[in-house]
UniProtKB/TrEMBL annotation:
Residues 27-82 form the HTH dtxR-type domain. It comes from the Archaea. This is SirR/DtxR family transcription regulator. The lineage of its organism: Archaea, Methanobacteriati, Methanobacteriota, Stenosarchaea group, Halobacteria. Coiled coil: none annotated. SUPFAM superfamilies: Winged helix' DNA-binding domain (SSF46785).
Length: 155
């Protein structure tokens, strides 16, 4: 057992993650995934389809995230992450990547995205680091450690 893990609360390594609810983080993650490699805005329709939610739910959540400074949302033009939103989405993506890679490479099991997201979001920080120690495969393109290309992953 290693003592090299960061100490503190389960989300101390991820500034601001403890301040957002799972649903907020899910939307930030979705926007990040949908906008990878593009500076353009993501449409509400794309988000609705990705998350399988109603158009009204997307509009309501984007208004809340805009109010909190996590996204720049313009009705009929779409949404993009702010620097704060990008930071949070990146932290969530890192956790998602570790969980997905662990289950795939170590347990030879493929998780549905929503399950991997939920595990990554709720797993204590030390748990994420323990999984990371056991993963030696390239990460998914959504991993912030991959430089968004999937080719330079540090995991």
């Amino acid at each position: 057992m290693s003592s090299d893990y960061p100490t503190g609360s389960a989300t101390s390594h991820f500034p601001g993650l403890s301040e957002v609810e799972r649903s907020n983080a899910r939307y930030l993650f979705a926007i990040s995934v949908l906008s990878t490699g593009s500076a353009e805005r993501v449409t509400t329709g794309e988000i609705r389809k990705y998350l399988d939610v109603t158009p009204a739910s997307v509009t309501e959540m984007l208004a809340k995230l805009d109010e909190r400074g996590f996204v720049d949302y313009e009705k009929y033009r779409g949404v993009r992450l702010t620097d704060n939103g990008e930071e949070l989405a990146s932290r969530v993506a890192w956790r998602f990547c570790i969980v997905t890679s662990f289950f795939d490479s170590v347990l030879d099991t493929t998780l549905e995205d929503h399950t991997a997201f939920d595990i990554g979001f709720t797993l204590p920080e030390k748990g994420v680091y323990r999984l990371r120690e056991r993963v030696n495969t390239p990460c998914l393109e959504t991993c912030p450690e991959s430089g968004r290309s999937g080719t330079a992953c540090l995991v």
